[in-house]
Amino acid sequence: MTTDIVDRRDEDGGTRVAANFGQDDGITADSSFVLCYPDGRHVGEGELTLVEILPHHTWLRTRKTTFQTGLLVEASIPPEPEAPEEGPMLHGDGSIGDDDASRLEA
Q1: What pLDDT, in 10s, does the model give residues 39-98?
Q2: What pTM, to 2 d.p., does this model score?
Q3: What is residue 34's DSSP assignment?
Q4: How far apart are CA 17 and CA 67, in angstroms?
Q5: Residue 96 and residue 105: Cα distance in Å, rounded?
Q6: Is 45 left (phi over 0), alpha (psi -120 to 50) or beta?
Q7: Please, what's the b/e burial string for 26-64 (b: 16 or more CB within 10 A of its CB; e: otherwise)?
Q8: Which residues are registered as beta bridge partners of 2?
Q9: Half-sphere exposure of 45 (CA within 13 A, CB side)
């Protein structure tokens, strides 16, 4: 997923940028970010580190102090882990299964 940079602030040894996506878009602490050109190519040394995730935008930091206008931020969001399949229900009397005809007595 790519989006625009909506704010930029110079800092010692780098730049802080706000990307136009956030928690509402599925951004998490496990997401990774990189600066890219509008055609999708990654900017050299354009890695971004997460600073803060808000509902509608995300603050990121780069070591780059100068870069051209019009760059985008690309986010890679890892898939959510799948929930483990539930096994048969074990009841206090030692029986297994649902509370219907499929319930097996211990």
Answers
A1: 999 998 888 999 999 998 999 999 988 878 899 999 998 887 776 677 677 777 767 666
A2: 0.70
A3: E
A4: 11
A5: 7
A6: left
A7: ebeeebebbbbeeeeeebeebbbebeebeeebbbbbbeb
A8: 74
A9: 8
